[in-house]
Amino acid sequence: MEEENKPPFVNFIQEDRFDLNSYLNYLFNQFNEYVSKHMDDVKMMEQ
């Protein structure tokens, strides 16, 4: 994950609370995207 893809924490602050659920969903989605790209690279290398 590149530095510019990291959102500032302010995107997950609502009023005086940190929206942990949204932040964890964001991280999970980023991880899935990373794994998908990596698996595509692995498949191409195996051919």
Could you describe the largest sheet, including whether it forms a barrel? 2 strands, antiparallel
Q: What is the structural class?
A: mainly alpha
> Helix segment count?
1
Name the helicity range: 55-70%
In N-to-C order, the SSE pattern is EEH
User: How many strands in all?
Assistant: 2
- What fraction of residues sit in β-strands? 5-15%
What's the shape? Answer: rod-shaped
**Physical arrangement of strands within the biggest beta sheet:** 1-2
Q: Which regions contain 5 or more consecutive residues with pLDDT less than 50?
A: none
> Using only CA atoms, what is the Rg?
15 Å
Distance between the termini: 26 Å
- Average pLDDT works out at 81
Structural features, described:
With 47 residues, this protein is mainly α. 57% of the residues lie in helices and 9% in strands. It has 1 helix and 2 strands. A two-stranded antiparallel ribbon has the order 1-2. The two termini are 26 Å apart. The relative contact order is 0.11. The mean pLDDT is 81.
